[in-house]
Design goal:
Length: 80
């Protein structure tokens, strides 16, 4: 029970930050903290040669590649 409250508190603190104002490495670190708080293992990739992947998150035998970008406006389908 205490662990659950701590996790909820941490997530509340993380989501209280202004993620929209973050760019680049700061935003990557923020998302790393979010995934860790959600119970994922997180590996950050090196800056170059990663095919655009910034984080690899895993849990319950599943691995997910995450590309981190911060844009003020919508991103078109070609970018996705």
């Amino acid at each position: 029970m205490e662990n659950m409250r701590s996790r909820e508190f941490l997530l509340g603190e993380l989501f209280a930050r202004n993620g929209r104002a973050m760019r680049s490495e700061e935003f990557e670190q923020f998302l790393r903290e979010v995934f860790l708080a959600l119970g994922y293992e997180v590996a950050m990739t090196k800056v170059t040669g990663d095919q655009g992947i910034d984080l690899i998150v895993s849990r319950d035998g599943m691995r997910i590649a995450v590309q981190v970008n911060g844009y003020f406006s919508s991103v078109g389908n070609e970018a996705v």
